Amino acid sequence: MRKLPKIELHCHLDGSVRPQTIIDIAKRENIEIPSYKESDIKELVMVKKDCTSLNEYLEKFDLPNKVMQSKESLKQIAFELLEDAQRENVKYIEVRFAPLLHTNKGLSVEEIIQSVIDGIKEAQNIYDIKGNVILSCLRTMSVEDGLKVVEAGKKFINKGVVAIDLAGCEEERFCNKFKPVIDKAREYGYNVTIHAGEAASGQNVIDAINLLGAKRIGHGVRIKDMKEAYDLVKSNKVYLEMCPTSNIQTKAIDDFNNYPLYDFYKDGIYVTLNTDNRTVSNIDLTNEIDLIFRKFNINKIEYKNIYLNTVEATFSDEETKNWLKSFI
Ligand SMILES: O=c1[nH]cnc2c1ncn2[C@H]1C[C@H](O)[C@@H](CO)O1
Ligand SMILES: [Zn+2]
């Protein structure tokens, strides 16, 4: 499984920081953290087995974000994420983060985005992997803040930034509020992916597609309980960015036996497989592929199909897509 060529479309930067790096940056930048022992930090950032909800899961991001407030740290963390990914033969990764979580020490939104792109570029120069950035707006933030992110990221479109996303806690019918933000983003040329149907119903998936023009949906697992949402995803060929372990941890899905990825796939829905958060969920992509493949007896041909669908789901250019196709 480690050797299989892989693509990852849904991976949060702040949820994927190496525990040792949290310590190294804290020491370097004189940031107070609860412990300087790697095992303690790992334990603190990792979600507990008895996590009951997405909101509880989201509490795990406070600690890593403490050490993501300088250009150097952002660049290092982005570099290391690609370094970790290429070790398991990930050829292409779309890295997402919410720029406004990194302004505590005075960095501008543009500096934040530039720093992450710099880290990705550095890794691309050394390793056989490519990456792009997705900018996340948090649903707890205002429309003005969302527009700030869209404006700041504009000059990076197709120069490192490829899409806009809405993340954070999920209320029913959140899409309406953010329509001005996502409309502006689409006008500027951002692709759109939206976290939806994770902690709330398939109605949010319907809204993300119909109101916001989402071409991909983060998670979307709840469409299994709403025919209208399911049919819309299928007929519009919307790609689902599925993240099994994260979905079990946040209780988006009650039982792994009911994980709908393979049913979706067999019915012609375009599924992709992702980690969501490597450190918070304590996994890598190999782990997720292994889990799903063993559980549902997925064979090599099916893997190839999912991989090729995932190539089409990327927000990359044609050259990158052709390059990715050459590995399978
Ligand atoms: O799975 C998720 N659903 C909703 N929001 C999430 C998920 N994983 C991470 N986030 C949030 C917490 C991070 O601080 C933010 C930006 O990466 O995105
Ligand atoms: Zn996510």
TrEMBL record:
Site, as annotated: Important for catalytic activity: H219
Cellular component annotations (GO), alphabetically ordered: cytosol
Gene Ontology biological process terms in this record: adenosine catabolic process; hypoxanthine salvage; inosine biosynthetic process; nucleotide metabolic process; purine ribonucleoside monophosphate biosynthetic process
UniProt entry keywords in alphabetical sequence: Hydrolase, Metal-binding, Nucleotide metabolism, Zinc
Catalytically driven reaction(s): 2'-deoxyadenosine + H2O + H(+) = 2'-deoxyinosine + NH4(+); adenosine + H2O + H(+) = inosine + NH4(+)
Parts forming coiled coils: none
Keyword Acetylation recorded: no
Positions that bind Zn(2+): H10, H12, H195, D276
Pfam families tied to this protein: A_deaminase
SUPFAM superfamilies in alphabetical order: Metallo-dependent hydrolases (SSF51556)
This enzyme's EC code(s): 3.5.4.4
Cofactor annotation remark: Binds 1 zinc ion per subunit.
Co-factor requirement: Zn(2+)
Top-level enzyme category: hydrolase
Its job: Catalyzes the hydrolytic deamination of adenosine and 2-deoxyadenosine.
NCBIfam families: aden_deam
Family listed: Belongs to the metallo-dependent hydrolases superfamily. Adenosine and AMP deaminases family. Adenosine deaminase subfamily.
Name recorded for this polypeptide: Adenosine deaminase
Organism listed in the record: Romboutsia hominis
